[in-house]
Structures are given as C-alpha cells and as structure tokens.
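User: My collaborator sent over this chain with a note saying "see what the structure looks like." That's all I know about it. Can you take a look?
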Amino acid sequence: MTHQEVPPHPTAFGHPETRVAWERTRNRIRLRFCLWTVVFVALLALSSIMNAAASVEYARGGSNQLAPMIGALAVLWYPFALYSCLRALSRLKKARRVLEAFPWQPLSRVRKSGRDSEGFSIHLPLGAALSGPDQEENGTVSPTMVARDPRRWTRWDERVERGAWFAGDPSRWGVLAVPGGTGLMTVQRSRANLSADRTDATRDLRAVLDAAPVRG
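Assistant: Without extra context I'll predict from the sequence alone. Here is the result:
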C-alpha cells in the first residue's frame, strides 16, 4: 500500500491495522509501567534487607551506607517513571480521539527540520497540496509542528519523510503514521507558534475535535 492508498474507512481508527498499532503501543506502555513497578518494589525490598543486615553490622561496630542510597534512589526515580508512563498514556488517549474523528489522508512527504525539546520539528503540506510533490515550493506548508512518539520523543521513523498518513488538522493537531497505520506519532504546533497565538496545545486539540467530520 503506497502513501496514496489510504483506507476507505470514515475514521482512521476504523482501520484494523491502525487499531492494532494503537493497542500494541498502549500495551507496551503498560508493560513498561509494570516492569518499572517490579523494579521499584525489588529495590525497596533489597534496601530493607540490607538495612536489617546493616543494623546487625552496626551493632558489631561496622557501618553500611549502601542500603539508604538504594532506597533513596528508588524513591526518587519511581515518581519520574510513573509520570513518564502517565504522560505517554495521555498522549496516546489524545491520539485515539483524533483517530476516531478523522480519516487518514495521504501526505506526499514530511519535512523534518530538526529536534525540539518535546520531539522533532517538522512541516506538513496543507490544503490541496497534501498529496502534491511541490507543496514546499508553493509555500503551502504548515507552521513548525512537533512530532512525538507516545512512548519516547527521540524515536523517528525516516520512512514518513518519503510519504505518510495523517489524521487531524495539519496546521494545529493530529496523528502521523507510516503508510499502513503503524509508527503512530502525535503532532502539534511548536511552543513558539502556540505562544505567538496566545494559546496552548490543549485548546488546539479541542478546536480540532470540534471541527471534526465525525464527533465521538
């Protein structure tokens, strides 16, 4: 299936492969959360055991500073891990709302212009030029957008630079994918563009969903 051959479903989430890709991403985030929780509990248990052993050692005139360090490390690290997973699930939930409201549309290419603090800076074709080869020359490209994999912001699939699928509003908020519905990434305006319009990504998403052809 080429980048021109998008599925005929009225919404992107109605495409079985897209739905499977979304569910697989969600399951991986949940699995990561479970693994980190197991590691956290194991570190706390290890710290408790070592503390008990250190008490005996201290009574004999020795000392052990490793146990408190392990316990402190676990307590400091786990909230960050929890926050990371919750943010990833939140991004994925927002992506689903867009996928349930918009159909896939083909993009002739995606131009990556660098990295942003929250993902990759990109430009998308707009309007009638969505599938045209000369959109950049005609100036019909989006403002600077930020694309981010829900799981980790450093992941980028170079295949979308040669053709991609997009659901949503390419000038405000949407979901980008490799043709076939895999490799889902959320796309929103950069902070600079949001600040210039005195708005934020949440308001952009709300406005895009309000204007969606299919409302959940």
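A starting point for your reply to your collaborator: The radius of gyration is 22 Å.
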